[in-house]
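Posted in: Protein Modeling Q&A

I'm a second-year student putting together a small comparison for a lab meeting, and my supervisor asked me to include a predicted structure for ABC transporter ATP-binding protein. I've never done this before, so apologies if this is the wrong subforum. The sequence is pasted below exactly as I got it from our records. If anyone can share the structure token output, I'd also love a short note on what stands out.
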Amino acid sequence: MFSRPGPISSAASTPGGRGASRDFSQLRRLTSYARPYLPLLLIGIACTLVSSGLNLVFPGLFGRLIDASFLKVGSTDTAPLDRTVLMLLGIFALAACFGAAQSYLLSRMGASVVADLRRALFSHLLTLSPRFFAAHKTGDLTSRLTADVGTVQTVVSTALAQLFSQSVTLVGGVILLFVTSARLSVLTLAVIPLVIGTAITIGRRIRRVSRQVQDAIAAANADAEEAISGVRVVQSFTAEPIEQDRYGTGIRASFRAALARAQLQGIMGGVMSFLTFGALAVVLWYGGRQVMAGDLTPGKLISFLFYAMQVGITVASLTSIFNQFQEALGASGRIFELLDERSDLPEPARPHALGTVSGRVTFQDVSFGYGDRDDLPTLSDLNFDVQPGQLVALVGPSGAGKTTLVSLIPRFYDVSHGTLQIDGQDVRDLALRDLRANIGLVPQETLLFSGTVAENILYGRPGASLQDVQDAARAANAHDFIRAFPQGYDTVVGEKGIKLSGGQRQRVAIARAILKNPRILLLDEATSSLDSESEALVQDALERLMVGRTSFVIAHRLSTIRNATRILVLEAGRVVQDGTHDELMAAGGLYRGLYEMQFRREQDPHAEAAQPTPA
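Accepted answer (user: helix_wrangler)
Welcome! Here is the predicted structure, written out as tokens:
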């Protein structure tokens, strides 16, 4: 019934050379995050070698214990038996100590690697442009940041330690199998190619299905995130069944994929179990015949069985680790897709120094289109020069391009044609951080973060003193209502500022912009959420704030911009009128029509109720 953009698409694993090459590339890329922790890795590997080596000694000593017990029936000399038991206890204790050290060191390294990966991913996401976030669901992105990175963490922290340990056990176990009995070893190892072939064949399918599970969960999370963030809209339209059905559809898709993965893992586990224990049964049968023939002692047979069991368990463990690595490759592929995303707002190789900003803003033949629409460009052939300190009001009907024009100044988007300059320098030649540090924005849709009032205002200038915060709040006429809260400036505003009224949120956002003290100020209907009394107070504060600053104002009431230095009237993405209020009123045309219609509405709110808001 409804459609929403899906998660970022990507190709599934490709069997063959290209898939293997990509797998190796992803593993190498993951490994690169471990370089800062190489000492931990090397010490952990050393502990793994010692622990696994000591565990390989156990079956041989156990065989000696069996022979010392059963081949010397009637003997009273228990010294060999005592020595063997003491050696076993000592080996167990040493293996446990080195095993614990190995587990801690490799787990610590894995946790550090994943923390770095998560920080790198989040930091990279913050560098991407608004165009990227407009095209992708927030829930899908957060799923990659949490669930997918968590999948990688399980492998890097736990499976990596097991991989080293089991590899040492496998190699050492195979060597000791041949030392104990070459003929039994050949019989035992004949099953290993079957195990490896099964693991590779089913493992590839597990990886593809694991990717489907991750994609389906990400899509469901994205739907849930949208529904939760817009819960008031959902409830006001009694659309709970629609959202429940949408989320349920995503969960069912993930369940089906997870079920398919579980079936494949079950098949693999069953095949591995049969091959492993079937091989042990054959070894026990053949080894028993050798003991009866006198070619093998009971202790050596027991030792061989232990080694064979170790090798079998190791192969099964490596199969499980292989599955985990397949899942991690799917998850890391989704992570690296984001890390490989490049912003469509590239930083200049050699950014120009901005210096002290005076605030001159120049549009030269500027045109802009979002690129994903089939209609005409949003803005066309804009040419105007705003001098430092001027107050420019942007007026026009809905959809005229006012907000888009304002979005170009801090370079949230790049112009499609022409140049946009700050103090005579193309904004594309400036470092984004330097450019935006000199621009203050109060958007139409106020966003506060789920901290305290003080923390939200401090967002404008981290490190500012409490006095500076209070002064900014006073300038925005927010100090009195903040002080009236029981916790004052320590009041928690809730997610997106939901605990504050619309007018209170707007005034906190204005205080945040005031504290930043920018040279260029962008106000996108900054007073639209206020009642008449609050609007008058905030408008007075804004007028004081805009003195000496270049300001662009989009106002929902034309009466608030009559004192603007300059008014740009937009229609269909073009500037159709340019002048002061008196000049435009005298010239007639679109501005005068908009003003008079708005004036009549303010005088009589019921008049022309069917007309849309003009600006």
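A couple of things worth pointing out for your meeting: The first strand starts at residue 361 and ends at 368. Strands lie at 361-368, 379-386, 391-395, 417-422, 425-426, 439-442, 520-524, 550-554, 566-571, 574-579.
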